C-alpha cells in the first residue's frame, strides 16, 4: 500500500504557509501606507537600485512583464515612480523613483521593524533561512 506524503512533512507546504504568514504580517502596516506587498517589494528594489529597466526590475523581483506592468502603472498613478522610454533604445522602459517614492522609505522602515518584532527567529536563524530560501530561487550560492 502506498501512503501519501504527510502535508506537514512537505517542504513546499512549509514554504507556502510561511510566505503567506510573512505577507499577512505586512498587510496592515502597508495598507496604512496605501501599499500592497508586491508594491512594497518593488519599492524596496528601486530604493536599492533606482533607474532600472522594466526587464531588470522584473528579473530582480522574479515577475513577468504581465504582472509587473500593472503594478508599475499603479505606483506611477500614486506618484511614487515614473516610467519613460530609454533615449538610447526606445524599446526599453526605465523606472525611476519620484521624491514621494523615495520619501516612503522612512514609513516603510517602521512597518518592517514592526514585522521583525513579531518574528520568533533569532537574527542568526533569519539569516540562515534567507540564505536557504535564496538558494532555492537561484539568488544565492548553490552548494552540494
UniProtKB/TrEMBL annotation:
Single Gene Ontology BP annotation: response to stress
InterPro entries xrefs: HTH_MarR-typ, MarR/SlyA-like, Transc_reg_Sar_Rot_HTH, WH-like_DNA-bd_sf, WH_DNA-bd_sf
Gene3D superfamilies the UniProt entry points to: Winged helix-like DNA-binding domain superfamily/Winged helix DNA-binding domain
Subcellular location(s) per record: Cytoplasm
An example Gene Ontology molecular-function term: DNA-binding transcription factor activity
Superkingdom of origin organism: Bacteria
Key words, A-Z: Cytoplasm, DNA-binding, Transcription, Transcription regulation
GO CC terms in record: cytoplasm
Domain HTH marR-type positions: 8-138
Protein name: MarR family transcriptional regulator
Gene source species: Tessaracoccus antarcticus
Amino acid at each position: 500500500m502506498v501512503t501519501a506524503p504527510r502535508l506537514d512533512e512537505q517542504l513546499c507546504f512549509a514554504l507556502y504557509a510561511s510566505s503567506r504568514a510573512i505577507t499577512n504580517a505586512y498587510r496592515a502596516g502597508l495598507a496604512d501606507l496605501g501599499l500592497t506587498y508586491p508594491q512594497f517589494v518593488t519599492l524596496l528594489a528601486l530604493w536599492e537600485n533606482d533607474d532600472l529597466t522594466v526587464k531588470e526590475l522584473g528579473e530582480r523581483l522574479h515577475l513577468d512583464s504581465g504582472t509587473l506592468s500593472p503594478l508599475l502603472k499603479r505606483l506611477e498613478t500614486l506618484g511614487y515612480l515614473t516610467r519613460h522610454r530609454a533615449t538610447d533604445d526606445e524599446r526599453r522602459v526605465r523606472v525611476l523613483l519620484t521624491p514621494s517614492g523615495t520619501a516612503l522609505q522612512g514609513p516603510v522602515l517602521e512597518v518592517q521593524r514592526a514585522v521583525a518584532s513579531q518574528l520568533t527567529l533569532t537574527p542568526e536563524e533569519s539569516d540562515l533561512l534567507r540564505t536557504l530560501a535564496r538558494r532555492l530561487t537561484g539568488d544565492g550560492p548553490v552548494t552540494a
